[in-house]
Amino acid sequence: MSEGMKEPLLDLPDEQSASPELLDSQVQRAQEQLLQLKRQQEQIEKQKRELEELSRKQEDLEKGRGDMIEKLTRSLVVIERETYEAEKRVEQLRLTSTTFAQHLNSLERINPKGWSNSDLHKELSKALSAVDDARAEYSKSLTKINAKSDGEVINPGATVEEAFYSASEDASFVVWLKRGFAFTLPILILGLSALLVFYFMHG
């Protein structure tokens, strides 16, 4: 019997010794005990529900925690790899830019008009060598840059103006795409609202 039961179970009197007053008293005590038992049962059921809810929340916690730990760990590995690749590409582009600038400076300083007749053969050989070096470096770097890109980063046949406007057009296309979506969004919402109203009215 539970500790909450303060009273012992009733001892039923013999039929011969039972009086109406005693029977009424016994019935009242039995009802009180039943009410107390009912309250204890309700309390136990409440505690059971609370424990079941707590257990469910703990299971949800462990499942969600494990799932997110796995996803975040995997994502961090991917991000770290992508960051490493991006840093390598930036460094490659930076080195290529420095090398191209050096070759450009070297080629721009070539001035055939300033060569003397006596040094013409020597200067011409040096100039041709500089052009060959620049061409070889350009081809090698171009292959590396374009190989690690989805598209053609540098178009060998494009002029300076074409290369500049090509990059500008790509950027402006995205801008106008976003603007077009912003302009048409209210019209789409208005049209859908009208369709919904028509549908509910003519159900």
Please give a structural write-up.
- The protein has helices at 20-108, 120-147, 160-202.
- With 203 residues, it is mainly α.
- It is rod-shaped.
- It starts with 19 loop residues before the first helix and ends with a helix.
SS content category: mainly alpha
Number of helical segments with 4 or more residues: 3
Low-pLDDT ranges:
1-7, 166-171
Q: Mean of the pLDDT scores?
A: 77
Largest sheet: none
How many strand elements?
0
What brief labels describe this structure?
mainly alpha; disordered N terminus; 203 residues
Write the layout of secondary structure elements.
Elements: H1 20-108, H2 120-147, H3 160-202
Helix pairs in contact: 1-2
Question: What's this entry about, in short?
Answer:
The protein has 3 helices and no strands. By secondary structure, it is mostly helical.
